[in-house]
Amino acid sequence: MKLISKYGWSIVPEDNSFLYYDMNNGGEQIGYFKCLFDNIVNIDEDTYSRCKYGVGYKNILKYFKNDVVGPSSVKLEDGSIIVTEYIDSYIHKFDRNGNLVWINESTGDYNNIYSIAYQKDFLWCVYPTVNMIKKFSLNTFREEKSIGEIINGPFNFPEFAIAYGDSLYVCDMGNCRICIIDLNTNEVTEYLKFNEPTWEYYQINGKEIVRLQSGIYILD
Questions:
Q1: CA angle, 73 as apex, 172 and 15 as ends, to 5°?
Q2: 24: helix, strand or coil
């Protein structure tokens, strides 16, 4: 594995590169960066925000106390964006220009949402403190599927999920691994195992990017 940053988190994919935020162990901001795989460059907060939330980022961030890094977001095919944050866990949808379309509170009734993942017409919500991941219809907000149990389930504090093709990749933090959920059968299998907690996972430019407790890495 190749270490990119010891302090990086909140990865944002951008074409054949990715952006991230650095904060030291004392909680002090180091800055924003763009990894081009062969080199790393500094960027400003506006560049990071625009990539994560789109051109209407300034209006979107008003709903999240201008917290650029904390909220989880996904972009839809039409350029609209869905955003949530773990405290209230309300789901917000904005159009491509950052105008609010709707707010849904029901998905946060189960527990705090740490991450969201998009599967066409559906939204997966990750609930770490109850060890569950739930699938909701974006048309009705009805729960379609729940995977996991508070105890004796497949997950131990899942932190993050992202869909690629017919698979949902889940960072199962407490079990120090990444799992795959087959979106056709909902079967859970172990994909990658580590010796430390897993926080984020992406596939970018034919490479796999993972954020572990010790930093952001490009996998061999």
A1: 95
A2: coil
Q: Which residues pair with 72 in a beta bridge?
A: 84
Q: Is 59 helix (H, G, I), strand (E, B) or coil?
A: helix
Report the C-alpha gap between 145 and 134 in whole angstroms. 6
Place of tokens 């690629």: 164
Cβ count within 10 A of residue 54: 20
pLDDT tens-digit profile, the chain (220 residues): 999 999 999 999 999 999 999 998 888 889 999 999 989 999 999 999 999 999 999 999 999 999 999 999 999 999 999 999 988 889 999 999 999 999 998 877 778 999 999 999 999 999 999 999 999 999 999 999 999 999 999 999 999 999 999 999 999 999 999 999 999 999 999 999 999 999 999 999 899 999 999 999 999 8
Query: Is 196 within 8 Å of 213 (Cβ atoms)?
Result: yes
Q: Which two tokens stand for residue 109?
A: 């009734």
Whole-angstrom distance, CA of residue 88 vs CA of residue 107 = 10
Strand ranges across the sheet with 122-127? 115-119, 122-127, 132-137, 143-148
What's the token pair of residue 203? 């596939």
Q: Which residues contact 89 (CB under 8 A, 6 or more apart)?
A: 107, 108, 111, 112, 113
**Annotated domain spans of the chain:** 2-212
CATH topology of domain 2-212: Neuraminidase (2.120.10)
